[in-house]
Amino acid sequence: MISKGSNLPDEDHVMRYVPWTKLRRDENEHVIGFLPQAFELREEEQSLSLNWLEYFSGDRNQRIRESANMFRGIRKVGAKSAYGIGNVRHIKEVCDSNGARVRIVYEPDHENRAHSGIRGLPRDDLSLLDALATQAFVELVRDAEV
Amino acid sequence: MTKKLIGPLSIGTSLVSVGSPQSARHELTYYGLSNALAEAFKELALGEIPLLTMQSALHAAAFSEGTRTMERRVSDLRIPPSPASLISPIGGQPLEERLFDATANVKILTSQIAMHLEREWRDKLFRQLDSLHDPKEWEPDDEPIQQASFATFLKAIIQIKPKRRPGLGLSHAGYLIAAWTDKFDRLTIEFLPNDRVRWVIGRPRDDEPEHIAGQTRVSRLAETLAPYNPEIWFSS
Q1: Is residue B79 within a helix (H) or strand (E), and if so which, with residue range?
Q2: How do residues B57-90 score in pLDDT, each as one tens digit?
Q3: What's the rounded Cα separation, in Å, for the pair B230 and B7?
Q4: How far apart are the C-alpha atoms of B76 and B83, rounded to whole Å?
Q5: Which chain A residues contact residue B166 at CB under 8 A?
Q6: Nearest Cα to Cα of residue A104 among A140, A145, A137
Q7: pTM score above 0.90
Q8: Which residues of A touch B208 (CB under 8 A)?
Q9: Per-residue pLDDT reduced to its tens digit, B81-109
């Protein structure tokens, strides 16, 4: 197990909660991806909040389920919400190619031992946010399906 | 919370029907706002509002009289402070009421230009707004839709006249987001207060993903997007 503040291994994966209002939909409300704003920092945030999937044991589906359960236990999770999943190395490469050098760091707290964050994300860079939404977090899992 | 539908409310020539919690505060909010809108229109009809600033004079050169009239109406609706904000402070208001008030206010705004939107378009827009403000899905730290953002959205829609309707979203700050998607071609526009928009286009180019972003005034949006073949997104 890595220590708090360490970089997550490149081969590992992270999972971000995305509420209904930040999901990309067509005019008939069919979900087709993430809006760039799903990866936008709030004013008070210093890092983009994620769960480290490999913190959990089991196969990939079990880890996703455990991570979703963790989210459900510590925050409001809407039935129409979704999760974005991406590979650590790939996320960093996408950020790098869009001019942002980021770190993806293990940031556990007492409620969520899998909590991690992307540090160094610039604010108000819509191109980068679009790249995160479409190239970095390439897997979308609806909460209702987990 | 118990919700009960009230009858259609007549504002000028438009009708809007929204569900309303049966509280005195809501009725005051609702009728106070509608009276302010009616006054705005009366003054507009009598020519009592000075309409042309330097900026709008520039707009005048670029858009038809019909478009300018609609844009002025949207602006006039937004400029007076909402009576709702004078009647009831937001702090401490239950979440469902906050969400309801926010959507009711922008629906009333929409009703004032309803004659310029197809009925089906407007109905779908209202359903999308309700969906965005579903209390069961709501993020506690987010802001509900801001009227100033929605006014910018209406101006953009009137000017662009997209045949295809967008999917909608909301930023943390309550700014409306419109998304058009055609396979791998994506256009996302965030509508800011004061007639500002920020937009981003994502599309593959020579097998490489390309992301192009910008920020402009709503009056220049169509011109700004023109080099990117916006008919991909806006055509039916």
Answers
A1: none
A2: 434 444 556 556 656 665 655 544 443 443 344 4
A3: 40
A4: 14
A5: 27
A6: A137
A7: no
A8: none
A9: 443 443 344 457 889 999 999 999 999 99
Nearest chain A Cα distance for residue B184, angstroms: 9
Q: Which of B138, B164, B177 faces A35 most closely, judged by CB atoms?
A: B177
Q: In chain B, where do the E strands start and end?
A: 4-5, 9-11, 14-16, 19-20, 167-170, 176-182, 185-191, 196-205, 208-217
The helix or strand, by DSSP H or E, that contains position A17, with its residue range, turns out to be strand A13-18
End-to-end CA distance of chain B: 40
In contact, B187 and B199? CB cutoff 8 Å: yes
CA distance A17 to chain B (A): 11
**Contact residues, chain B, for A29 at CB < 8 Å:** 128, 131, 167
C-alpha closest to that of B117 among B165, B152, B75, B83: B165
In this complex, the residue of B165, B169, B200 whose CB is nearest that of residue A22 is B169
Instruction: State how beta strands B167-170 and B176-182 pair.
Output: antiparallel
Strand partners, B197: B191, B216
Q: For residue B137, how many other CB atoms are within 10 A of its CB?
A: 18
Chain A positions in Cβ-Cβ contact with residue B171 (cut-off 8 Å) = 37, 40
Instruction: Name residues of chain A where pLDDT drops below 70.
Output: none
Rounded Cα distance between B202 and A126, Å, is 10
Among B132, B188, B202, select the one facing A21 at the smallest CB separation: B132
